Amino acid sequence: MHPCLDISNIQRLPAGIRRYAEAAVQDSFKFESMLALTLRYDKLPDAQRLLVLPVLYHALDECNIPTSLDLAETQRHALKRQIFVVLKCFQGMGTSIARGVAPKDATPEIWPRILAWVLFLDGLWEQIPAFYVDGGQEVVLLRVLGIIAEYADPAFFQDLLDKSELFVLVGSLWRRLTFKQYSDSLTRGEAPFPYLSDLLVVIPLERIRDIANARVNVDLVIHKTFESILAGAGTLSTLAEMLVISISRTATEPHLYLRGQNQRSCLSEPIPDVITMIGALYVFGHLMCFGNSIEPSFAHHLLAAGVIPALVAAIRAEAFEPDAGVPTDTTFDHSTLPVLRRWRLLGPSWVFIFLSKLITEPGLDHRWMIVEALDAGLLHSLICLCVNTKLMQDASAVSTSIINENDVLGPGCFSDHTDKVKRLLGLTLPAYSFYYSVLAALRDAFIDVYALRSDLDEYLSQIFDPELLHVWHLLRHHVNQLFTIAEYKSSDSAVTRFRACDNLACNKLLPRTQLKQCSQCLDTLYCGLACQRADWRSSHRERCKLLAPRNLEYRHLFIRPDLSFFRALMTCSFSQYRYSLSLSLARFRQMHGTPFHEIYIHFTFLNVTERPQLKIVDLASDEATRIRELFTDVIDRVRESEGRMQLHVLDVACGPQDEDDSDSNGDPQDHDNRISMPMPLRFASNQYFSRLNHLVECNVVQPMVEPLYFAEIQRITDEMGGWVY
């Protein structure tokens, strides 16, 4: 036994405290003596704490762990009192180890007894959740586990990592804490998530540096830690829910972490300071990145748990006001404010990095994720992040004695935030905007952001760099244009012989034959010359230049991915068709249970303009009859173009595709296995026929795996994007 754990050490205590120590040793189950001793323990000087440590160790050694949980009511009451004593001993031992009172070489002797009780309590509260001792019971266990991991000597810590038992317990405790109701520890003033953050990532990574073996594989350690936490959590979906709930509570309940809060738990630990709380966001974002790299399917579980709104809310809550969460009491050391501000941005920074990675994850439906993020306030969060980045870059009061250039919180940590913001903002550019849902969410997000303050444009010019500001205004301008067009195209008047004047200030509904067509782009109709001139001065001049068939400038814009919103501007006229196709395809797969390698796509070209060069489907055939019945209004529109348009039909089919598939006999069951979308195309130039024939030759007639299928759909729609009317 280590000398510091010798029970005879209590004889050197002062008489007052020695009386309680001797009574506790004589009867470890004497609740009053142990309670009086542990309550006085925090107020003792370090020298006397070391002398009391054998009493705490003896109590753990003498308290017998029940072998059965089938206990009578009186036995349960006695067990609760015993567990309370054990928890108070945990607190005392943890404080002694953390303050360096207990020698490090004594930890291996203390750990087996602590581990045995933690395993028992974890199993007890797992089987009997109603076995309630105190609101802070799980937090005490997390606290002592964290102290053991942080202050143990390197050899003992390496042994803990190899056995992985510590982090299995952490995962189990974390799961139970996360799904606890608010009536439990959270309302009693406890703040468990910062303790979790220390245990989950910070402590393992920091302690790895202390391990003597410099050849340790950090990735392997992280992998083992994650697998151990997963074993304690149960499943990937449960772990994903735990992360989402932890992020939400950490970001949206800052009052739990402020100093000076009244704590009603008898086992209350000192609440971590604000910097530790904000660091929890950093850790949870870090852990999501680890999990996603170790288990590729983890991203899908996170999405199902609602991670995107939680991430956006965390960014917004922690980055919105740079001084939010700073205690207002007079004892707060405001000299640490620059450090605090950097921590405030560091947490959202990692959450932001994971959000951007998640939205760009291959194989995921980015459109609905972007809509979800926009609805949760993504634009607000981007502005908040830029505001804090600007504050960090302009903060001149940061002392080099507090923050080093090479520190994780150093000035270089935030140098690329503008690029991150620009990249995520670029994801919302209308590369996806032909989907009406994204347009609507973007439009509502802009309205919401500009409702914040009347001088927002001037305010943004101070915090955005010029290039980002240009992208911001361009995005807003084109979103408004695209939304107006998409809204009109989905209206009832768009499918009748009536059409509204394209001058938005007029918007008068007239028969198409009475409207005057723009002679440059042939795309807009006006009720008179006055409306045409007014619209030309306001906005049409730019669009007309892009849409003019004889102007090839717009073709260069399609090639540049950073200007993909121009492509959306060209394809917006048929946004409802593309959106309907994606919805129909989802229903199609669900109805037939068809894997992607059995789905085929091809184009059918229907000649309604009497141009024999492209007459692929005979007007008298059953296929032409089916198309005319499905798309009567579209065919009428093509006929009214007086030879300037051609009707194409995009077909998605299921099952084997024969050579004469396009000449179907009209069997209703065959039609159920096909999705057809009309795509009226303009004759843009003399190169039209050659490009069209090239596209026809590239029809898909062989089974494809899912990624190739999406790639082919994207290629065809992108090629046709420059031709649509």
From TrEMBL:
Keywords: Metal-binding, Zinc, Zinc-finger
Residues annotated as domain MYND-type: 503-544
Chain segments carrying region Disordered: 656-676
GO molecular function, one term: zinc ion binding
InterPro entries given in the database record: Znf_MYND
Name of the molecule in the record: MYND-type domain-containing protein
Species: Mycena indigotica
